[in-house]
Design a protein that fits this description.
By secondary structure, the chain is α/β, with parallel strands linked by helices. It has two domains: 284 residues, 3-Layer(aba) Sandwich (Rossmann fold), CATH 3.40.50.2000; 192 residues, Glycogen Phosphorylase B (Rossmann fold, 3-Layer(aba) Sandwich). It is globular. Helix 12 links the parallel strand 13 and strand 14. Strands 3-4-5-2-1-6-7-8-9 form a nine-stranded mixed β-sheet, with helices on both faces. A six-stranded parallel β-sheet has the order 12-11-10-13-14-15, with helices on both faces. It has 16 helices and 15 strands. Bound molecules: alpha-D-glucopyranose. The site of alpha-D-glucopyranose has 13 residues, from helix 1.
């Protein structure tokens, strides 16, 4: 009989397209830095497997050791039956941080500086998915008990495991968990526009990497079908995706597999996001010295070339510029808001021209009221959180949301839409009872957003009440500790599900 290992011996390998600090496009990369670290802190041997993208500096910055050369990864194609990869290994100096395996391939990773955005992304992540399994099968050093795959990029991995490696003497006991960080992206195609001919039922054999059909595989769907257990990054999102409104066409499938679907809220790494110790901000502070936040506000206004005013409210947004994030609501209402109310608005984040263009125009219209930095940036968010009064997350949907949790630690009050992880973490402020932590609106509608903005800016005028709110927000605890314990329970549940299925 196979027994679930104790946490002291449990070995978990995360397979991901991103992991900070090596490769990060959004929240996923941050989670891949902090969650393995939090698991290691409670005794789990957690490691990470990612592609070695071109801009990861193998020699100077990270001293990577080649541990497997000439790994032949099957492609399913007759003419080119395999792609050749190497596997490199990195053990960070800080033992708390997870060791990383990098899959190296000249054509698909080394020549590409970016993580996403190439026409052959399906092959790039198909290669990652098959590569990790091939590596585990052939490498003799270390074998995980749990393979935790993340998002569509590794949905192929879950499928390949079940169809090609399930009976391998070496890998057959592996538990496969699939974590959904964003159901909206399901593969390289747009699942909302897919024709009947291109529809993927999720059950047919995965075709060759080079076939026309391969880019049309719904890797998200396959991850859902073939995994032992699934989780999303908040409880509310795990329920929302069972409805047509949030299910992205997979709600019926998700309802069928509901028994293996769980929700675990992401945490925040307070070693990194803490105004008391943060070296990137102008003045450090705690909830007891919150008045120093005003000096950080001046530093932020200087950074964005805005008039230096200690008492004007600064409203900010740190976000990928994506339809998901509710930037439309801001763009549709900001002229009206700026006419009625006095505030400055700062936005940091990269994304499509659909948003960068109107944001640049906005900056031109209100040079003294608006500050923008329209590229992803990893130091500016610290300044923004320390110097702002209000952080916006008016998302259409939000599996968890990371920036509002980070900002809250800096005493910046969230204004969010009641969805996903935002609903789980921000209780609406009630000035009469003095309860709640932020400003929450329900409907995805510009006037509902407008109303909440006015409410927040009005409340900002009551200094004592506002300071009380800020202090309460700062003292909330969203550290990874509790979430890491829940991941451990999830792995145990996945183990049970697999055992019961086997015995049937
Ligand atoms: C995705 C989701 C976001 C979540 C992040 C990390 O980017 O859109 O809500 O916080 O993943 O899990």
């Amino acid at each position: 009989m196979v027994i679930f290992p104790t946490k002291k011996h449990l070995k978990v390998l995360f397979v991901s397209s991103e992991a900070a600090p090596y490769a990060q496009a959004g929240g996923l990369g941050q989670v891949m830095y902090s969650l393995p670290k939090a698991l290691r802190e409670i005794g789990v041997d957690a490691r990470i497997f990612i592609p070695k993208y071109g801009n990861i500096d193998a020699q100077k910055k990270y001293n990577l050791k080649t541990i497997y050369q000439h790994l032949e990864v099957p492609t399913g194609d007759e003419k080119t039956p395999s792609l050749i990869c190497n596997v490199k290994f990195f053990q960070p100096q800080n033992e708390k941080e997870a060791p990383v395996y990098f899959l190296e391939n000249m054509e698909y990773y080394e020549k590409r500086a970016n993580i996403y955005g190439y026409s052959d992304d399906s092959i790039r992540f198909g290669l990652l998915s098959r590569g990790v399994l091939e590596f585990l099968e052939k490498n003799s050093d270390w074998l995980p008990d749990v393979l935790n795959c993340l998002d569509w990029q590794t949905g192929y991995c879950v499928n390949f495991f079940k169809t090609k490696y399930q009976n391998s003497q070496k890998l057959k006991n592996l538990i496969v968990v699939f974590s959904i960080h964003n159901l909206h992206h399901q593969g390289t195609f747009d699942h909302r526009l897919v024709s009947e001919l291109d529809f993927d039922d999720g059950k047919s054999e995965i075709p060759s990497f080079f076939s026309e059909r391969f880019p049309k595989i719904n890797a998200m769907k396959r991850g859902i079908i073939y995994s032992d257990a699934i989780n999303t990054v908040s409880e509310t999102y795990s329920r929302e995706i069972l409805t047509p409104e949030y299910g992205e066409g997979l709600d019926k499938l998700l309802l069928e597999v509901k028994e293996k679907l769980f929700g675990i809220l992401n945490g925040i790494d307070y070693d990194f996001w803490n105004p008391k110790t943060d070296k990137l901000i102008y003045k450090n502070y705690t909830s007891l010295s919150i008045y120093k936040k005003k000096d950080n506000k001046i530093a932020l206004q200087k950074e964005f070339n805005l008039p230096l005013k200690k008492n004007i409210p600064v409203v900010s947004m740190v976000s990928r510029l994506d339809e998901q994030k509710g930037i439309d609501l801001v763009l549709e209402t900001i002229d009206h808001l700026l006419k009625e109310m006095s505030f400055q608005f700062i936005l940091v984040g990269g994304g499509s021209e659909r948003y960068t263009k109107p944001l640049l125009e906005l900056k031109e219209r209100y040079p003294k009221k608006i500050g923008v930095f329209l590229l992803p940036n990893f130091t500016l968010p610290h300044l923004v959180f320390a110097g702002s009064d209000i952080i916006l997350c008016p998302s259409r949907f939000e599996p968890c949301g990371v920036t509002h949790l980070q900002a809250m630690k800096y005493g910046t009050v969230p204004l969010v839409r009641k969805t996903g992880g935002l609903a789980d973490t921000v209780e609406n402020f009630n000035p009469t009872s003095g309860s709640g932590y932020g400003f929450v609106f329900e409907n995805y509608d510009r006037w509902c957003f407008f109303k909440e903005m006015v409410r927040a800016l009005e409340n900002f005028k009551y200094k004592k009440t506002w300071e009380g709110l800020q202090k309460r927000v700062m003292e909330l605890d969203f550290s990874w500790k509790e979430s890491a314990k829940k991941y451990l329970q999830l792995y145990k549940k996945a183990f049970e599900i697999k055992r019961v299925k086997r015995e049937k």
